[in-house]
Design brief:
Its main location: membrane. It is a multi-pass membrane protein. One of its GO terms (cellular component) is phagocytic vesicle membrane. This is Macrophage-expressed gene 1 protein. The chain is α+β, with helices and mostly antiparallel strands. The protein is built from 11 helices and 10 strands. The protein has helices spanning about 5-10, 30-35, 110-115, 130-140, 170-180, 185-200, 225, 230-245, 255-265, 290-295, 325-340; strands spanning about 50, 55-60, 70, 80, 85, 95-100, 145-160, 205-220, 270-275, 300-310. The strands form 3 sheets. Strands 5, 6, 7, 8, 9 and 10 form a 6-stranded antiparallel β-sheet that branches. A two-stranded antiparallel ribbon has the order 1-2. The N and C termini lie close together (about 10 Å).
Amino acid sequence: MKVATSLLALSLLQVCSAVPIGRPTNWLRECRATTNVSVPALEVLPGGGWDNLRNMDTGRVINIGYFQRQTTGDGLYLIPDEVFVIHHKETVVETSSEIISSWLEQKSSTSHSINADISFISALNGKFSKENQRMKTHQVKDSSTTTRVHVRNFIYTVKVYPDFTLDARFAQQAKEIADAIENNQTRNTDYLSERMVLDYGTHVITSVDAGATLVQVDLSSSYVSDNLSEGSSVKAQAGLNFFDKLKFDISSQNTQQSSSLQTYQSNIQYSLIQSHGGGIPFYPGITLQKWQESTRNNLVAIDRSGFPLHYFINTNTFPDLPQPTVGKVAIAVSQAVERYYKVN
């Protein structure tokens, strides 16, 4: 896989900035000392960089601090000054089933929204993630078709305020690119721009959905593909197969449905259940209620939204730089992201 190889090689050619940037405190410890120490900080936060090819978090782009000592509306978590939280008070567990005939059609179970971005080569979004590579390997090796079942417990949406400030390290890297541009150092401009992509990814997360999700993936060589005309029935059997592993009452299903479920299960070549978030690891026989109740103790991002990295390099975020230079820095970073996509 060529992901990040060329960028990593370039990073070895030159040393980092001669003036190291210190790690500024975000005052979280001080905030805890003056508030209820039993209140944990919300860990699912926007403002970080994101590699939209590999679906990986990268360096922090937007600065965070805890000077205002904010908490979520329900008082359960401390949150940074730069974000606001929408609490989804209704208790809803969403369940969905789908058939994925080709790994090229696969959408991330935790990054669907940002993978839909069309700023670059959208067909490549998420295609170098572990999730997609696993599906590709099994589908190609076994000539199989995939069914996937999601169960999502959606609790918060966390968004960045529009008047944010940039992280000092990210801002310093952008200013180094600006300096190279103003001194007509074309090769150094390309290098610094590619290093920024290596450090901060291709996009910046501005909104995250926090909660927990269970995902089951089943692969079958012939059963699903032979019954694509009865897609709703196949998806129903995939759902029943998932809930059959939970303490979930399906005994009321009629004999025909039970027979169909057994046929479905007997044709599974590979099956995987993943638990993202939740205080209790998934195990066969866990009740859906117990899993749902445990999610508040271990929230994770179950979807992400954001914008390309170069959108955050503008005259509002860099008012001390000449406007033409800021525009050139944004273009240089955008072109570095395009090269990153094309090399893969």
